[in-house]
Design brief:
Residues 135-187 form a coiled coil. Keywords: Coiled coil. By secondary structure, the protein is an all-alpha fold. It folds into 2 domains: 3-110, no CATH class; 114-191. Helix content is 71%, strand content 2%. It is built from 5 helices and 2 strands; from the N terminus they run H-E-E-H-H-H-H. It has a two-stranded antiparallel sheet. A hairpin with a 2-residue loop joins strand 1 and strand 2. The longest helix has 74 residues, at 113-186. The mean pLDDT is 86.
Length: 191
């Protein structure tokens, strides 16, 4: 990878780490130029540039958080790297968790008592449903990959068997040609 690709990958990883932090600790509130949290009608104003989709994640740029926009090729490379990246489904699941965290925080600030807890339960059920969908999708993907792997193993076995047959045939042909060559070299030339 060249320097620009490494920087793009690091930027994507910074975005992922930031989202994971917000999911655990809560979304930050918007602030004025003096660093004071902003409220409207006694309700907090949350960070406005939160990515709500993969395209928004890709374009997400905010000097306050230290993230910049990412080109599509770099993001696709990140999503196809099984070791150092994450799949498209995993990234979408992370973004969905962030959206639920925002809803959870909004509920906490706008509801009181039993209504808050009822809405919180609904949000958690929604999150579980999304995670179940993600698990189902990933399970299907794993099964498809297992089938593909088995097909490739069978192709390799077929090719190995075919190559073995061809090698044996060539070995036999080589043996016959050597025998003919030996017989031909034993002939004496008469002048």
């Amino acid at each position: 990878m060249n320097r620009m690709q490494v920087e793009a990958r690091n930027n994507i990883k910074t975005k992922v780490v930031l989202i994971e932090k917000w999911i655990k600790q809560g979304l930050p509130l918007a602030q004025d130029s003096n660093g004071n949290d902003l409220y409207k009608n006694d309700l907090p104003i949350f960070y406005k540039d939160m990515p709500k989709s993969i395209p928004m994640f890709r374009r997400w740029c905010d000097p306050l958080t230290g993230v910049t926009g990412t080109n599509e090729n770099a993001l696709n490379s990140f999503m196809s790297d099984l070791k150092g990246g994450m799949t498209k489904l995993e990234l979408q699941a992370l973004i969905d968790k962030l959206k639920i965290k925002q809803e959870e925080q909004e509920v906490a600030f706008t509801k009181k008592g039993l209504a808050y807890w009822e809405d919180l339960v609904k949000l958690k059920e929604k999150m579980i449903s999304r995670q179940n969908d993600d698990i189902s999708s990933l399970s299907i993907e794993v099964n498809d990959l297992k089938i593909d792997l088995q097909c490739e193993k069978e192709k390799i076995n077929d090719l190995t068997e075919q190559m073995s047959i061809e090698i044996n045939a060539l070995t036999e042909q080589n043996k016959k040609l050597r025998e003919r060559l030996e017989r031909a070299s034993s002939f004496k030339v008469v002048k």
